[in-house]
Amino acid sequence: MSFSETTRARAREIIARYPADRSRSALLPLLHLVQSEEGYVSPAGVEFCAEVLGLNKAQVGAVATFYTMYKRKPTGEYLVSVCTNTMCDVLGGQKVYDTLAEHLGVGHEETTADGKITLEHAECLAACDYGPVMTVNYDFFDNVEPQAALDVVEELRAGGRPMPTRGARLCTLKEMAVQLAGFADERDGAVADGGPGEPSLRGLRLAEQHGVSVPGFDPKTPIRSKAEADRAAAEEKAKAEAAKPAPEPAKAVEPAKPEAATGSTAPDVKAPDAKSPQVRTAETRQPDAGTAVPDAPGTKMPVDGPAPAPRDARAAEAAGAAANPPAGDGKPAGDAAGAQERNLKEAESGTGADGGDPADASGTGVRK
Ligand code: FES
Asked: For bias kind Basic and acidic residues, which ranges apply (predicted)?
């Protein structure tokens, strides 16, 4: 399979959205992109993503098999997902699914013979307030009854495009995959077709009614680059350090006086620690020079001598990374130059990270 020049140009555009040393972050949109050409993430699609990002196929396969939106076998023009999770189920979701399965003659993740409809049952589609819900290529049909669901699939099979309850008008699964890869829906006015439903706006309405707003939030706040955010964080830290009061000289501790007898016969109760539990927990997790860790197993606290310097998070992270090389195949995680060449050589010699399992024809860790 050779991907089209359009797909290759889009892949370059996606990768260019990320910093040069973070290109593998482009993997999720790239998987949608290859799906937009083939209708699913094929072994060739996995190979394409691995090649353009300098990853190995096992790394791409691990991601592609984790998310249900990446399909592992050819999928129909319309993906009909019926929520059978708890909320929708009690409202009739399973009945909707069963009715469609019987009518179409397909089960979960199966496609009708005409290639039009792939049916799947889905876990919560994040629209519980409209249950039972069904989506077609991720566009919603709310409060759906079995007969209404049948009408939708029949219209799709007849070449029609029924309007979803809200959101943009329907497109094919391949067209939707282009949008999921981060490209605008180019159909004239498509995204203005439908607004959000009233239950989705309920929180907003209540906030308006009660005069609740996000304090000090300017909707025009620009999104900062990582370098700018790091610089701002460093400035904030420096300001906080400068504003700290100078430490008071240590006071001599007076020996405890024996308590006066109260005449009470009740057993002595130890006074509670004045610190809140949250403070104690935070101190135990992030001890500094002034906080002892009495019960952390294996902790070696200096008994005397100068107090240790406060931890430097970056230095600690670097030391941890150096002491803990990546698990698994031991190869660079992907962005290092030369990773692709090494992967190819290993694949040719059959000594890949996955052990060169000949039964794993896809190279994704899935035995055929
Ligand atoms: S349970 Fe169906 S959308 Fe949440």
From this structure: 225-242
